[in-house]
Design goal:
By secondary structure, the chain is of the alpha/beta class. It has 8 helices and 7 strands. This is SDR family oxidoreductase.
């Protein structure tokens, strides 16, 4: 059954920029209350504060927390707060949009650093494994109920490779595997879990990838729409997919790329 999102709650992990921020804005326009977790320096905190006030200006509640979303301590501290803020209604939508990882090569050229075990573990923990830990704790706390939707942001890097992207590619592959396993285990509870595979999207995290300008130009030329994916495209997909109580669309990697991979 198609339902209204107004009055429900959304948790965005990685809420201060890129796709996470666009999703929070889109859902706030739909009347969804926002819980945002981000990990920023002063400039990022100021940007998050502006976004929070813009969302509140739409008549919804918006609460942002500057904390490390990959930390177990953060979950321990924030879950009781989330229970209090949501007033027992639970969280309808969870968005995992954490983009923090190393871009070092596995085998560096002469004079170039190579990936370390610590960097590999950090990248997979933040960008993949934290999805599992948040979902576990939210479910155990009773904040995920029938009709809830969990989304993880992936990319074509889960199956394709490029220079400097090895650890992130491994994290995306692991993330997609976690999505399938969580979908299997949460199906009896009526909770859907999906990965959204955005096309090449101009975000702060993409700009950190060496050669991102060439990557963007190539993707723009290939895309049937002759443009890159925008964070707003992904936000609209989340809004659309969340308008049902059904959990029948689950365990998928859903392309939100304008047909980028078709060509």
């Amino acid at each position: 059954m198609i339902t209204r999102l107004e009055g429900s709650w959304c948790l965005v992990l990685g809420a201060s920029s890129g796709m996470g921020l666009a999703i929070a804005h889109e859902l706030a326009r739909e009347g969804v209350h926002i819980l945002g977790v981000h990990f920023d320096t002063t400039d990022g905190q100021e940007k998050a504060a502006v976004a929070r006030e813009e969302m509140r200006g739409r008549g919804v509640e918006a609460h942002f927390f500057n904390a490390n979303a990959a930390s177990a301590r953060t979950r321990e501290e924030l879950l009781p707060r989330f229970e209090e803020l949501t007033g027992g209604t639970g969280i309808r939508i969870v968005v995992h949009s954490l983009a923090f990882g190393t871009l070092l090569p596995y085998v560096g050229a002469e004079g170039e650093d190579s990936l370390t075990a610590r960097q590999m573990n950090m990248t997979l923990d933040v960008m993949a494994h934290s999805l599992v830990y948040w979902t576990q704790d939210l479910f155990t706390a009773g904040l995920l109920r029938q009709g809830a939707k969990v989304y993880a942001m992936t990319s074509a890097g889960g199956a394709r490779v490029m220079p400097h992207y090895g650890a992130v590619s491994a994290a995306k592959a692991a993330l997609e595997s976690h999505v399938r396993q969580l979908a299997l285990e949460l199906a009896p509870s009526g909770i859907a879990v999906n990965a959204l595979r955005a096309g090449v999207t101009p975000t702060p995290s993409m700009e950190r990838i060496p050669g991102s300008d060439r990557l963007a130009a190539h993707a723009r030329d290939l895309n049937p729409h002759r443009r890159l994916t925008r964070p707003e495209d992904v936000a609209e997909a989340v809004s659309l997919l969340s308008r049902t109580d059904s959990s029948w669309i689950t365990g998928n990697v859903i392309g939100v790329d304008g047909g980028e991979l078709l060509t």
